[in-house]
Amino acid sequence: MSENEIKEERSERPEQNEASAEMDGKPQRKQNKYKKKVCRFTADPELAKQINYKNIELLERFITNRGKIIPRRITGTSARYQRVLAREIRKARSIGLLPYKVN
């Protein structure tokens, strides 16, 4: 090999080694399989104002077909709004707008 060929070969190597140097320097974070859930009420404050025991369409999204309140780990709702939702669902149940239990 001539000196020019060796210089060209060496100049190509750093580009390839930069990516491997980043991997060797720090441990890489493990990629999550799942998308992070975002609270829809925190993202949209106008929607948070609509949480009311009279708004049955909104509240029905947060109860199962058997009448149970869906937990926040599944819906992605923040703790603050989950408490508000649960309170409003209980109010709607006591008035008779939502079922306690579906047979």
From TrEMBL:
GO cellular component, one term: cytosolic small ribosomal subunit
Region (Disordered): 1-36
Origin: domain of life: Bacteria
Cross-referenced InterPro entries: Ribosomal_bS18 (IPR001648), Ribosomal_bS18_CS (IPR018275), Ribosomal_bS18_sf (IPR036870)
Keyword RNA-binding part of the UniProt annotation: yes
Family annotation (Pfam families): Ribosomal_S18
Alphabetical UniProt keywords: Ribonucleoprotein, Ribosomal protein, RNA-binding, rRNA-binding
GO biological process, one term: translation
NCBIfam families: S18
Subunit structure comment from the entry: Part of the 30S ribosomal subunit. Forms a tight heterodimer with protein bS6.
Family in the record: Belongs to the bacterial ribosomal protein bS18 family.
HAMAP family for the chain: Ribosomal_bS18 (MF_00270)
The protein, known as: Small ribosomal subunit protein bS18
